Amino acid sequence: MNDELTELMRRQYKVVLRPLPDQDGGGWLAEIPELLGCISDGNTKDEALRNVEDAKLEWFDYALKKGVSIPQPGDYESEMLSYSGKFTTRVPKSLHKRLAEKAQKEGVSLNQLVNNLLSSGLESRVHKKTGYKVVIESEEPFVIDQPEP
Prior knowledge:
It is a single chain. By secondary structure, the protein is α+β, with helices and mostly antiparallel strands. The chain folds into 2 domains: 1-83, 2-Layer Sandwich (Double Stranded RNA Binding Domain), CATH 3.30.160; 84-149, no CATH class. It is built from 5 helices and 6 strands. The chain has helices at 3-9, 45-66, 76-80, 93-106, 110-121, and strands at residues 16-19, 28-31, 39-42, 124-126, 133-135, 143-145. The strands form 2 sheets. The protein has a 3-stranded antiparallel beta sheet, covered by helices on one side. A 3-stranded antiparallel beta sheet has the order 4-5-6, with no helix packed on it. Strand 2 and strand 3 form a beta hairpin. The protein is elongated and about 60 Å long. The two termini are 26 Å apart.
């Protein structure tokens, strides 16, 4: 490992651990949210944490070779303090009507419907620099697909 990789590996990034559902094989998923696509799993929490360190090394190696910007570790708790989880938006009356009708038809609140629609709008994005496809599903861990050659 070269000096630059060694120095990068010393950085302390937040790791998020999530249990994997039994239908997905069980175990644990480990992710470093600040390093898009840096994710691994394991049968135990410890194994997932060890494996995500390998993924971090590979992520840094790829980023250095491809010239991808490598973010500094952040302070997630301080960053989240600036978001209340609530915002106001204006929509045309016709859209408001359609949304309200759909919410009623599905037996959910308008708030819940809009939250689900916004979340699903974020489900599939391709990261411009790495080419990784990131799929985010509520209540489920991130799924990362490598770009096609």
